Amino acid sequence: MISMNGDQPSLNFHSLLKLIDMFHTHEASDPRDKVYALLNLAVHDNPAQLLRPDYELSWKQVFRQLIETFVSIDEDTKLHTWDDQRIAMIQTEGGLLGHVTEARGNKEIQSIGVEIWDTTPVRYRGRLSKYFSQGIKNFRLSRGAKDICAGDLLCVL
Question: Residue 10's pLDDT is what?
Answer without folding.
Answer: 44
